[in-house]
Write a structure and sequence with these properties.
14 strands, 2 domains, single chain, two-stranded parallel ribbon, six-stranded antiparallel sheet, 25% helix, alpha+beta, disordered N terminus
């Protein structure tokens, strides 16, 4: 009897400790930043802001691989304080100057009607050395976007460029939700614009050129040797082998949580693209990865940002996992 009581007490203490440590590591992040009530107040766009034409001093950023968000398309912008530059020191995030604004607008294109519907714009602003996040929902007139705190659900019915008709209950995250993906220990950070992910060819001024070189020549990015930077493949590129495509997909859709400093940092997966295969935890989680990405519900992965299955992405992951010995 004493042994049973001892074991019961032991496991109770262990469970309480695990829960306690999880709560310590994942406390909500609030940098108490003030955000303007309307997106237009930031002057990121010229003319009617629904045109999404960047204002002077605002640059478009393209990524090698991107996050899947219920088939929404995205425009990424960055504005640096005048005369300031980013600094690349490796393949991870560049060092951003104080006052940097990163904006990402989510929208759906209606192929037959030659129009688009703007859903939300997310802002990351670097103030006092800390990143602050906010979400703005576009109004029904598509004239401006309004600051949200609690998030929203937006029904969307449209026929995509692939000809498929979709009905989606798009979820705009709350300010608190932003910390779920953008967490690094107890701070917020950008996710997509790493040097590795920016190191691609883009069309600027009517010609194809290196995005890093373009940003450098515009006085927005400092680096010592462009040749030492890696790149992340575009997982949509079917001409590439399955393995790097699948690793890129998981890096962009899963690694923001499944990395040492993320929300799931204590789990057995580290899906950062730079992590060697033997250290990813993929060999021990094959079936779990297949099942949790392929079905919606409480156990669906990723937990945030999707309300429908990315059929192409899931097929890519499954093909990759089943190819592993």
């Amino acid at each position: 009897m004493k042994n049973k009581l001892f074991l019961l007490l032991f496991f109770t203490v262990v469970i309480a400790y695990v829960v306690f440590m999880h709560d310590i590591g994942n406390k909500p992040i609030s940098n108490r930043s003030h955000f303007n009530g309307m997106l237009s107040a930031y002057g990121l766009f010229r003319g009617e802001i629904a045109s999404l034409e960047p204002a002077a001093g605002v640059e478009i950023l393209d990524l090698g691989s991107t996050l899947f968000t219920d088939y929404a398309e995205k425009q990424r912008l960055i504005r640096l304080p005048k005369g300031k530059r980013m600094r690349a020191t490796g393949n991870s995030l560049p060092e951003f100057p104080e006052g940097t604004i990163i904006a990402k607008t989510f929208y759906y294109s209606y192929a037959k009607e030659k129009r688009r519907r703007l859903i939300e714009t997310r802002l990351l602003i670097l103030q006092n050395g800390l990143w602050n996040a906010a979400t703005y929902q576009w109004d029904t007139a598509q004239k401006d976007a309004i600051l949200l705190e609690k998030g929203a659900i937006v029904p969307v019915s449209y026929q995509g460029k692939d000809g498929i008709f979709r009905q989606i209950n798009y979820q705009i995250p709350s300010q608190k939700d932003c910390g779920s993906c953008h967490r690094s220990d107890n701070q917020l950070i950008p996710i997509g614009p790493t040097i590795r992910n920016l190191n691609i060819e883009v069309i600027r001024n009517g010609k194809s050129q290196s995005q890093l070189v373009y940003l450098h020549e515009k006085g927005l990015l400092d680096y010592k040797d462009k040749g030492r930077f890696g790149t992340i493949p575009n997982f949509h590129d079917v001409s590439l082998p399955t393995e790097p495509r699948a690793r890129a997909y998981m890096a962009m859709n899963c690694a923001h949580c499944h990395r040492p400093t993320g929300m799931a940092g204590r789990k057995s997966l580290n899906l950062d693209f730079a992590t060697s295969y033997k250290n990813t935890g993929i060999p021990f989680n094959k079936q779990n990865i297949i099942e949790r990405t392929a079905a919606m519900g409480a156990y669906h992965m990723p937990k945030m940002g999707t309300t429908v299955i990315d059929t192409a992405g899931v097929a890519l992951i499954r093909r990759y996992i089943l190819s592993l010995k």
